[in-house]
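Why do we bother with a discrete structure alphabet at all? Because it lets us treat a fold like text: something you can write down, compare, and reason about line by line. To make this less abstract, here is a complete entry for Enoyl reductase (ER) domain-containing protein. Read it the way you would read a sentence in a foreign language you are learning: slowly, and without expecting to understand everything at once.
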Amino acid sequence: MAKQLMHVVQYDSYGGVLTLDCNGTVLDIAGEVVEVGQGVKSFKVGDKVVAILRHATGGGLAEYAVAEESMTVKRPSEVSAAEASGLIGSGLAAHQAITKSAAINLDGTGKVANILITAASGGVGHLAVQLAKLGNVHVTATCGERNIDFVKSLGADEVVDYKTPDGNSLKSPSGKKYDAIIHCATDIPWSTFEPNLSERAKVIDLTPPFSAVMTSAFKKLSFSKKQMVPFILNPKPENLEYLLGLLKEGKLKTVVDSKYPLSKAEDAWSKSIDGHATGKIIIEPA
């Protein structure tokens, strides 16, 4: 069966935008529907929407993009295009890691959990902190010294500079063991995680290298109660609608590090690759 596609223009009266993911592929877009394909039932020309594109193809770094109906949702008028596009991939990753991988309820029910979020000032991390605090969760976070106050403002209970001895070893200032680690950074070995984990803890690695995959396999084969979980995003439109609802209600915010016109996309790419953005980098087609 043919996929149901529609053309989406990124530039609209709200300021159409795209965001860069950690690999530089433009996947997250916000704009206005200008054409719908045969069989599309949920959208019409003129609808303000957000969409996530396929990771294998990208395609958002342009004035127009083609999005699948199943991966597109309407954008509330109360939410700007920049806020919405900055939420999509990072928000879905944070939401899935917290609610599915770490099994944390965002309605405040469930047992108290202690979690660590690494790189908490980044695109996924800053959303993960906010979402985790909707649950019955004590959040420890790591980031650079310049972002400590920023991460505290998001609701983190403890924030550690990752360049300090405690930050480098991932120790909680209060001595808590973590029930889950939402790992948004890179290059941290299992030997650093393990001493800080509770008996049945999980390390959810959002950008898993081959070593994380191997560790995951070994832990399963050895029946270890402490698990490494290589993360694979499974985006669902209902989860995106939920996150947009939180934005609309003011329970969640997307922090924009910087904005670039499409003509300066190379500069945006350079900043993304540098890895020190606070929040999201936005590209505006105009």
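What the structure line is telling us, in plain words: The CA atoms of residues 262 and 285 lie 5 Å apart. Residues 81-101 form the longest helix (21 residues).
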